[in-house]
Specification:
This protein has 352 residues and is α/β, with parallel strands linked by helices. It contains 9 helices and 15 strands. It folds into 2 domains: 3-230, Purple Acid Phosphatase, chain A, domain 2 (4-Layer Sandwich); 236-350, no CATH class. The strands form 3 sheets. The chain has a 6-stranded mixed sheet with strand order 4-3-2-1-11-12, covered by helices on one side. Bound molecules: manganese (II) ion (MN).
Length: 352
């Protein structure tokens, strides 16, 4: 039974920052779970210069480890491994030759600026190497075209495509797993036609604010399906709150409840929307925002306050007669809310 920890882009750039801590956490998880191999599927470094500066420190992280580390170059660190750079005795940069471990064979398709027929040819040429007497695993770094991911999901701006491939490129090959990197936003696994698996684990630490929610790696046993493993690493957490002026709820308490549940390593992106009835809750817009800010201090990357006090509208005769009509009608609670929402917006727009 061979256990593998598969991670995607870490984009290291500084010693001991939150990304570095994520790498250290992955090493600990690898030890605790007795994995045989850790695969890093591209963009371990943010830039080649970061690899240059951090290499001595990386050797320390990867020294005295009870597993092998396999790395393939990504589009951000494609030149970081050239010239026989040494990352540690248990670290292998997978470029041309396969890595054999018992009855498991791992091959890498390192990042290159190629696509279409060139890339397809490169993958299909692996047919000679991927013989069926072993479990075959392929590491790659690029964009899966079968899915409607946006460019931002890959953590890159601009229009350029990086090693774009389709699941069909792997057809006809003895592949049990494609372990991929480059896709940052979330864990995403699919089946290959031959029954094998294609997995993007998502970045193990948030690189930009687009990567929200607790991060994951793929920690699995060769022969079994891929497995999501939740990480306690730095990440952004979106907290969208919609206030309902018809409920007896205190907006500050609602925010408080969300922040009590916030992961200790998370930074929030808070959005407070909806309407409040300041008369009913005895708080002005200003009171609400300043009390919320007392709770969120130091815990948010962004705070958006889009709430409005509509106590004036709720006292409006037209609105009152409209809501009474709605109540007489046989609507679901949800439909009732929608109609009230429409009336509130109409009255606001009309400036009544
Ligand atoms: Mn990346």
């Amino acid at each position: 039974m061979v256990k593998i920890l598969h991670t995607a882009d870490i984009h290291l750039r500084e010693y001991k920052d939150e990304r570095w801590e994520a790498l250290e956490e992955l090493v600990e998880i690898g030890k605790r779970n007795k994995v045989a191999i850790v695969t890093i599927c591209g963009d371990l470094f943010d830039k080649d210069i970061d690899a240059e500066n951090l290499r001595p420190k990386i050797r320390e992280v990867f020294s005295n480890i009870p597993f092998k580390v396999l790395i393939i170059p990504g589009n951000h660190d494609a030149d970081s491994y050239k010239g026989g750079m040494y990352f540690g005795e248990d670290v292998f940069i997978l470029t041309n030759s396969p890595f054999e471990y018992g009855d498991v064979r791992i091959v890498g398709v390192p990042f290159e600026p190629i696509q279409g027929q060139n890339l397809l040819g490169k993958i299909r040429a692996l047919k000679e190497t991927l013989t069926p007497e072993k479990k075959n695993i392929l590491l790659c770094h690029g964009e899966l075209l079968d899915a409607f991911f946006s460019r931002a999901d890959f953590g890159d701006e601009g229009e350029e495509r990086y090693m774009p491939f389709k699941l069909s490129y792997f057809e006809g090959l003895n592949i049990d797993y494609v372990l991929a990197g480059h896709f940052h936003s979330k864990f995403d696994d699919r089946r290959l036609k031959n029954g094998g698996y294609f997995v993007y684990p998502g970045s193990p630490v948030s690189i930009t604010q687009r990567e929200t929610g607790q991060r994951k790696v793929n920690l699995f046993e060769v022969g079994s399906p891929p497995q999501e493993y939740l990480l306690d690493t730095f990440h952004y957490q979106a907290i969208p709150i919609k206030l309902d002026p018809f409920k007896e709820e205190n907006p500050v308490e609602i925010v408080q409840q969300h922040f009590e549940k916030l992961h200790p390593k998370a930074t929030a992106i808070l959005t407070v929307k909806g309407y409040v009835n300041s008369e009913k809750i005895q708080m002005t817009e200003q009171d609400i925002v300043s009390q919320i800010k007392g709770i969120t201090k130091g815990k948010c990357a962004e705070e958006h306050y889009e709430l409005s006090d509509i106590s004036r509208i709720l006292e409006n005769d037209l609105f009152k007669s409209f809501t009474n009509k709605v109540k007489e009608g046989d609507y679901t609670e949800e439909k009732e809310r929608q109609l009230q929402d429409i009336a509130i917006k109409a009255i606001m727009q009309a400036g009544l």
